[in-house]
Give the backbone structure.
Amino acid sequence: MGLFKKQQQSSDDVVAPDDPDAMINLGLLAYKAGDEDAARAWYEQAATLGNPDAMKSLGVLAYKAGDRDAARVWSEQAAKLDDPDAMFRLGVLAEEAADLDAARAWWEKAVKLDDPQAMNSLGLLAYEAGDLDAERAWYEQAAKLDDPDAMFNLGVLAKEAGDLDAERAWYEQAANLDHPTAMINLGVLAYEAGDEDVARAWYQQAAKLDDPTAMIHLGWLADEAGDRDAARAWWEQAAKLDDPDAMFNLGVLAQEAGDLDAARAWYEQAATLGDPDAMFKLGALAKEAGDMDVARTWYEQAATLDQPDAMNNLGSLAKEAGDLDAARAWWEQAAKLDQPDAMFHLGVLARQAGDLDAARTWCEQAATLDQPDAMINLGVLADEEGDLDAARVWHQQAAKLDHPDAMFRLGLLAYEAGDEDAARAWYEQAAKLDNPDAMFFLGLLAEEAGDMDVARVWYEQAAALGNTDAIEALLRELG
């Protein structure tokens, strides 16, 4: 803001010594060419002639350079000349300094000069104060000035109120004014309604405005359609705009293709931009390579950014090192962020300590988040208490998540109930998922039926997966 003028001229034009508009335009040309020093020099010349646009632009340059004091000085000079953008900037500086009263005062001054940015900011202050009516009123004022951000914010308010028609209408108004996030939200609404073509069209409009989030959505649509090349192309475009999510997605594609070097390179790029999921992935790659120190380092970096999977893995590393207190501490942190595996591990620790109530509580929390091991533990606890119906229900829930141990345990329950056919069916499902215990019991069923050839096949498969009972059965037959 504040770096543009309606008129532009060539840098070859002659600049009169008292022509501040020409100086500002030359400053703009220098800025666009990447020469901020030259831009600043031109703006300073114009500022000495009392031009508020030049002062405002100098404030913006100082702000972007991190020099808040200089930004404040220049903005104050422009504000004295009734420049609303400068007033808005002074409000931002006050807000950053945690002086909300000063921020509100500056924005209210800018509002008197019809500055929509200030209206939006006052709307946000009203939101933080819990005053929904005032928030909506500020956005509506800005929307009357054709401010797309205000229209977008009104769309968000409509969404929170459950008014889908109003939400879509506000987003459409903002989209007509080239608001890319409004376009993306319209795409999301279309996608949720099952209209992928309309969703794609909205995303493409936003992508034309160089919005990386739109490119990511287009990549997901391509990926869902099985077009990995198109997905990669969209994410590469977004990555060129320094979008860490796109870099992360490209890392996943490379990892799935078995190219760990490329995956690591993409994750590292995303990690340098502060992406905690990329840090977690780098930790996982290091762990798979056997480098626990590097893995721990990456997990710790991700954990400082509240990445729950990293916390869970740090807990596992601590447990492997014999430090149960550290493991519990990490898992408790992860559990607060709804990490189901961490909840399951806490349940295991509680059970090992003999606290069955705590074990049940943790596993129930994990089960609500579809953690199958927790469901199995709840089934085992129910079985131990003699509640076979509850045990069966828990194991069935886990089986729906394709957990082979749950299928095996359902086979045991069916066998104990005298239903050999159901038991065999469950064992076979578990065996397809390489459960050696199920294979061994299928061997037992075959042996009981007198079919030693089938029994031997099952025992051999189970033995190959390390089932000691199957190995003993084969040795018994040989002896």
The first helix runs from residue 20 to 32. Confidence is low (pLDDT under 50) at residues 1-14. The CA atoms of residues 212 and 241 lie 7 Å apart.
